[in-house]
């Protein structure tokens, strides 16, 4: 009995560890979610170091859904070239709009800067600047919603799950029946994502927010340009694949 429990725990630990490492290596690759995390962390006047957590919560919600769909046999849909092209066009357009929005707001001076060099400003001045900052109601302003939307906009996220992710699930026998392994796989994967994006948000919040306004705007413009170029690449690249 004890041997069986030990073997079971050991097996679950293997699934968790491999899932964690695979997710971590994928998360560390540059992409729109990384750029979005940096932007949100720097722009947040309070607790920006937690932006990685909220963004990955949204990301995890979406991944929980896709794992369930894959277990119900949805993988063939994600491997369809028409589906990938549709996702590429829609997702690329969304990222282009997001990038253009950042650059436009920088050009118009609509980006809040009350958090820059906040350590040298009195509290009443910070409150005044924060109160005068323009408010928006865009979905991407919510990091959880943004984590979902930005992840969905990336067709290579869908490709990864239809190929690498699904192959991993098959290799380790992930299924509803083997729910402990399913749980270990999901927690390990999200822990890998969280470890990296929380590190990025802490680093961005603690370092970049103490820049001067010009450098801060320059970084935002670079992020916006990256979003636009990545959006164009994602919209075009699915059409370069063979049917």
How would you characterize the overall build of this protein?
The chain is an all-alpha fold and 243 residues long. It has helices at 2-27, 32-43, 51-71, 75-78, 81-108, 123-132, 143-152, 155-171, 179-207, 213-236. It has one domain. It is built from 10 helices and no strands. The longest helix has 29 residues, at 179-207. The protein is flat, with a radius of gyration of 20 Å.
Summarize the topology:
Blueprint: H1 2-27, H2 32-43, H3 51-71, H4 75-78, H5 81-108, H6 123-132, H7 143-152, H8 155-171, H9 179-207, H10 213-236
Helix pairs in contact: 1-9, 2-7, 2-9, 2-10, 3-7, 3-9, 5-10
Question: What are its keywords?
Answer:
single chain; 243 residues; mainly alpha
Which geometry do the CA atoms define?
flat
Biggest pleated sheet: none
Radius of gyration: 20 Å
As residue ranges, the low-confidence spans are 118-137
Give helix and strand order, one letter per element, not per position: HHHHHHHHHH
Mean pLDDT: 78
**Total of domains:** 1
Helix content: over 70%
The computed structural class is mainly alpha
Please report the number of helical segments: 10
Proportion of strand residues: under 5%
Instruction: Please give the number of β-strands.
Output: 0
- How far apart the termini lie comes to 53 Å
């Amino acid at each position: 009995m004890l041997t069986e429990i030990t073997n079971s725990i050991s097996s679950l630990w293997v699934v968790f560890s491999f899932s964690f490492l695979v997710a971590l290596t994928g998360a560390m690759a540059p992409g729109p979610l990384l750029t979005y995390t940096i932007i949100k962390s720097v722009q947040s006047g309070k607790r920006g170091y937690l932006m990685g957590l909220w963004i990955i919560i949204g990301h995890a919600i979406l991944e929980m859904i896709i794992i369930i769909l894959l277990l119900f046999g949805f993988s063939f849909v994600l491997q369809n070239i028409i589906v990938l092209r549709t996702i590429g066009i829609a997702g690329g357009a969304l990222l282009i709009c997001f990038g253009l929005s950042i650059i436009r707001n920088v050009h118009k001076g609509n980006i809040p800067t009350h958090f820059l060099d906040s350590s040298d400003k009195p509290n009443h001045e910070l409150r005044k600047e924060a109160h005068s900052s323009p408010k928006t109601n865009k979905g991407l302003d919510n990091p959880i919603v943004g984590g979902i939307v930005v992840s969905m906009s990336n067709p290579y996220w869908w490709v990864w799950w239809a190929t690498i992710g699904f192959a991993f699930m098959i290799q380790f026998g992930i299924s509803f029946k083997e729910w402990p392994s399913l749980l270990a796989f999901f927690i390990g994967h999200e822990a890998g994502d969280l470890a990296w994006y929380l590190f990025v948000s802490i680093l961005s919040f603690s370092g970049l927010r103490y820049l001067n306004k010009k450098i801060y705007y320059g970084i935002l413009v670079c992020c916006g340009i990256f979003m636009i170029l990545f959006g164009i690449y994602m919209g075009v690249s699915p059409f370069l694949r063979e049917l």
